[in-house]
Amino acid sequence: MYRWWNGLVDRVSQTVTLPLLLLLLFGAASVIALLWYFFPRWVPRRLPGMPRWRWRSWRWPRFTWPALRWPKWRWPRFTFTWPWRRRKKTVPAKEETVETLEPGSEEVPEVPVADFVSLADRLAAEGRFAEAVRERLRGMVRELIELRVLEHSPGLTVTELAAVAVARRPQVAAPLTEAGMIFSDIWYGERPAGAEHDARMKELAGTLSAALRTPVGAAAR
User: Membrane-spanning residues where (predicted)?
Assistant: First the structure.
């Protein structure tokens, strides 16, 4: 056993010098140490496997007949309605296109007089008498427009329209003048409005309606 070992060492020493042999041993030790330190990262997770051959078994082809569906026969429907049982055609009701009136500026929108009166009553019930007075004056001017005493002019205020109405119909001068004074005292003179002002505007609106319904010749007599 010692002979072959000694012979091996002798052959290696004759082929490789001692410094080179030490360098090779040091390199091998370094490689082994690195492999041991980073184990098992360098080991492949999956080894390449051999290809698998799969033989497909032969099968007889399947022949399927198309599904036949017979048509469904339906008897025709005959409908007959007696003349006295025919339904009357319902006429769709006309949609109300009345603009929802809200307290706004002094201009008079194109809405019925009843809307101004309803809004004024609601404002008076809420204690907003100044706005109620304004809406009642707007309702009075709107009544003049509906009776064609005035023409609708979006650029004019209620006080300006009232002045034009007084010039055209002298019989409406008294209620319109007093209503305009109440409105000016409250809105321009900053006078506090109360329930008495709203009640007085109601009376003046009724007086104006009565004067407008009276013929011009009868009022002159």
Answer: 20-39
